[in-house]
Amino acid sequence: FDFVLADLGVSSMQIDNPDRGFSYKYDGPLDLRLDQTKGEPASERLKHVTRDEFEGMLIENSDEPYAAEIASVVMQELKKGHPVDTTSKLRELIEKALVRVPAADRKEAVKKSCARTFQALRIDVNSEFEVLDQFLYSLPDVLAPNGRVAILTFHSGEDRMVKKAFKQYYKEGIFREIAEDVIRPSAEECRNNGRARSTKMRWAVKR
Fold it and tell me: How far is it, in rounded angstroms, from Cα 178 to Cα 118?
């Protein structure tokens, strides 16, 4: 290919559909699968991980600062035989986990931790990092000489992977040029589309 553009964002139509379970803002089944015809929903995935594994998932996939507290509360609930199978239930448990956060800061902290926890689960359920790793691995073979690639990421974990791969390919002489800095959306674009706020774009040119 002369040009490859990868947009790693999740469809807004999927996020806004309560039946998909992507957002803590809407009550619905805790599913989070991008393809509901295969794999297991997040509610089932939680039954098969340990507290340490869930804590690690929250840290690795979304840099969650309250990972230990959230993992502990969620696993205690499951051990009691209570299902965590709706978005509202998971949000309630996150609120419980952050009860020691000062009252003035708690609402915003819960909001951010909910977003990060749902993100971490979505990444795990859909093996998103593994898929991205396979895509990055294939780039040298699918790009034509002087071919260009641009990748839009939406959180730090994805951006780290892209940055690392581009630097490695540049060091190996496969890419002749890579972006020194990420390209961010303008303030005007963020006003028009709030979901663009976290976007980072990196590009590279094959030798």
Answer: 32
Question: HEC states along 57-91?
Answer: HHHHHHCCCCHHHHHHHHHHHHHCCCCCCEHHHHH
> Model confidence at 92, in pLDDT bands (50, 70, 90)?
very high
Cβ-based neighbours of 172, under 8 Å, separated by 6 or more: none
| Region class of 63: left (phi > 0), else alpha (psi between -120 and 50), else beta | left
- 206 burial type by CB count under 10 A (0-12 exposed, 13-18 middle, 19+ buried): buried
Question: Phi/psi of residue 63, each to 5°?
Answer: 55, 40
Q: What is the spatial distance between Cα 132 and Cα 85, in angstroms, rounded to a whole number?
A: 28
Interatomic CA distance for residues 63 and 151, integer angstroms: 21
What tokens does 6 get? 């990868």
In total, the chain counts a number of residues equal to 207
CB 110 within 8 A of CB 165: no
Helix, strand, or coil (residue 38): coil
Amino acid at 170: Y
Comparing CA positions, the residue from 130, 128, 125 lying closest to residue 47 is 125
Q: What is the pTM of this model?
A: 0.89
pLDDT category of residue 184 using cuts at 50, 70 and 90: very high
Tokens standing for 55? 């804590």
